Amino acid sequence: MAGAIRAPQAVRAPSPTSAAVEAALRAGRRDWAGMVAATLLLLTLLTSLAILFVLLADVFGRALPVFAERGFDILTTPLSARPTQAGVAQGLFGSIVLTIFVVVLALPIGILAAIYLEEYAGDNAFARFVNTNIRNLAGVPAIVYGLLGLAVFVTALGAGRSLLAGGLTLAILVLPIVVITTAEALRAVPLTIREAAFGVGATRSEVVTSHVLPYALPGILTGTVLTLARAFGETAPLIMVGAITGVFRTAPGSILESLEGPFTALPTIVFAWSREVKDEFRALTAAAIIVLLVVILTVNAAAVLLRNRYDRRW
Question: Structure pTM?
């Protein structure tokens, strides 16, 4: 109403945070502790990058003459005692078969276990006990899994030093990581998605399959791809379960015979060649490292593309 006298508004006292910000701006003080921390972090980053650059430059410097002389022949030739004829074909085949074991065994079991723990088990003592042990298992060194594979798969179950034992060992090695990454992806889906689905009468299985999993799929894919990259590059557990680090010949046979026979993998070839005293094998070691890096970086790039392509922001 015109001419009405408005009551004076109550003056709010400034909050402690705004008062501290205002006082800092007036005083013109510098955050010396923050500047020192940022400088140390930057120096740490630059030091790490410098070390990585020196290592990569050394490896590329040794490997380039091999690729220049032999081209991609090193990828298609088998192991040999002669460095001029040795290649990584058997190692690539072994690593690919071992990764297939991980895909077939570890990924379905790990993803289903994570779905049960996050969506069905609830917050009870059993779920907390299982989650705690899974996180502890993820931190166990890889060589311990190698010893477990040697005792269980190679000796107790009679699989021998074969691709089968190596694949099973790698599968149990990455299984806790699959469970953890999948659980984190499921946990990142907002609770309101579930509440909305329950609100329209959906059952729990419908909520999980139609609402939660589609939104969590990018995170699950990223975690599984990174898990496969780790499985591809593991060395210690394969040596423990009997991966060949020297020259061997494979006789033609069925797929089952190949799974039960001797095997090698790309990381074990790098390990074996690095112990040779001949300079030619050192160059071959660098070339095998380049092949291994290219495969792992390709897998990691695929994970980044998947994350960027399907990432959702809430």
Answer: 0.77
